[in-house]
Amino acid sequence: MSDLREMIRERLGAIMTNPLRIPNVTCDVCTGPVPSPYARCYRCHTDARREAVPVARRVVPLTYAVVGTQADRDMYRYKDLMPAAQRLRNPSYQRLLLLLLGFADAHASCLDVVALRPVTGMIVVPSLRGRTGTHPLATLAAALPSHWARAELRAALGVPESQRRDLRPEHFILPDSAAVLGGHIVVIEDAWVTGGHAQSAAATLLLAGAAEVSILVIARRIRTDFQRSPVEASLQRILTDREYSLDICPITGGDCV
Length: 257
Prior knowledge:
Layout: H1 2-12, H2 42-48, E1 58-66, H3 70-77, H4 84-88, H5 91-106, H6 108-114, E2 121-124, H7 136-141, E3 149-150, E4 154-155, E5 172-173, E6 184-192, H8 196-207, E7 212-222, H9 232-238
Parallel strand pairs: 1-7, 2-3, 2-6, 6-7
Antiparallel strand pairs: 4-5
Helix pairs in contact: 1-5, 3-5
């Protein structure tokens, strides 16, 4: 564990940024910036009020990815088309793998403490773009705890690009509802922009009988072109220059529980 911690400090410290959980500064769901005195960003607030479509109330981003930074570029480059052996040598893929390995070793057990029930399984959100073969996100997710049973979620065919960020559980198909029934399922997603993709997957699971769903996101994407907007002050607080640290729990925003 000490070797992993040191590797994370050396390779991620200057690139990744721990998400913060500060009331009335960051959204208490997705950790994005909010204008004071609000507790949630507009999208998370709106999705939570959709009575007919249940959503996950616990979202755990591992890093912020500010648009235009190396962390943001990593979210594209890790999944570029390339042979599997080459991907393992890809620096972007390696950095995201370190994020997940660090979470699995240091913080995955915290989910069991804060949730109503321990985690029983996980699913990787499939791409709605029709990508064939094993998605690199599924390969990365192999780093997560082995006792999280792997369940399958499939993408519906022909989802228009204009709808892919909408909250629509019909975007996904669950082949075996028994795999999630009554369980606590972790949805694995690579990037959170508005959350529609991951929350649609979460809604599919909840409607199929999952008792609880948490969303684990590698990166919460952050835009900085909000000058003279209500969230400008919050952006200045969450994007202060600081080194990424495995000591900060992504679930609590502070110490582990």
